[in-house]
Write the structure tokens for this entry.
Amino acid sequence: MDLAEAAFTAKRTGNLEQASQLIREAFENEQAAAALIAHQLDAEPSRSILHRSAATRRGRLRRIKSSRTFNCNCSIRKSS
């Protein structure tokens, strides 16, 4: 969770590159944890929560990448 909070802070301050890296690390950690208990049905609800959390991090990573691309395109347009 610390990585996700740091990513949120980085994004709010406009550091999309750092936010992207931190979200990627959080996603990879949660994905690995989810994989460890993927077939342990007795691990509910933790198993579902880890999978949902990993999916959420992946979605945020995609949105940050889209924001970064949008910001770059806006910068190019302004300087032209």
Notes: Residues 75-80 have pLDDT under 50 and may be disordered.
